[in-house]
Design a protein that fits this description.
Length: 173
């Protein structure tokens, strides 16, 4: 077993010494001059050679065609994998944009909706007409078919009930 590792290590040293430079030059052309990527491809190629050391016989033929083929396939595989998934976007520009926290807003709206559900239908109706629809007391009274004084009274008691319902839910003003 130790002898096999020694042979594999010797083979790797010989492969690196003889083929790493020309292989790097070839891969640099394949990856459009991206040196870091080219170095990664050469490293991966040599790792694959090391893993297949028992199948490689440097005395039988030159290993450079095999190494070039493996490197080319690694580049192609990498290109295909990048095409298969969406391009990554740098989040830095998005972090600079001021945005409201949508989760907090949604939670506030859910809490308000729950508090509105706790109101009587008459109190809920006057709040919807006056606050959410933006109608005056007279317009709300006309739409609801009740006197203006009744609308004012219901708004007062509805707001008081809403305040209590929100305090029960832990919302403070």
């Amino acid at each position: 077993m130790r002898e096999d590792l020694a042979v594999a290590d010797e083979l790797m040293r010989a492969l690196y010494a003889e083929h790493a430079g020309p292989l790097l030059a070839h891969v640099l052309r394949l990856v459009a001059g991206d040196r870091q990527r080219a170095e990664d491809v050469v490293q991966e190629t040599l790792i694959r050679a090391w893993k297949n050391a028992e199948n490689l016989d440097p005395a039988a033929r030159s290993l450079r065609p095999w190494l070039v083929t493996v490197a080319r396939r690694i580049v192609i595989d990498h290109h295909r994998s990048r095409q298969a998934r969406p391009q990554e976007v740098d989040p830095a520009p998005l972090e600079a944009v001021a945005a409201e926290d949508e989760i907090d807003k949604a939670l506030r709206l859910m809490t308000l909706a729950d508090a509105l559900d706790d109101l009587t239908p008459a109190h809920r109706a006057v709040l919807v007409e006056t606050y959410f629809e933006g109608r005056t007391v007279s317009e709300a009274a006309e739409r609801l078919g009740v006197p203006s004084g009744t609308v004012r009274s219901r708004v007062f008691y509805a707001l008081r009930s809403m305040k209590l319902a929100l305090e029960e839910r832990g919302v403070t003003s």
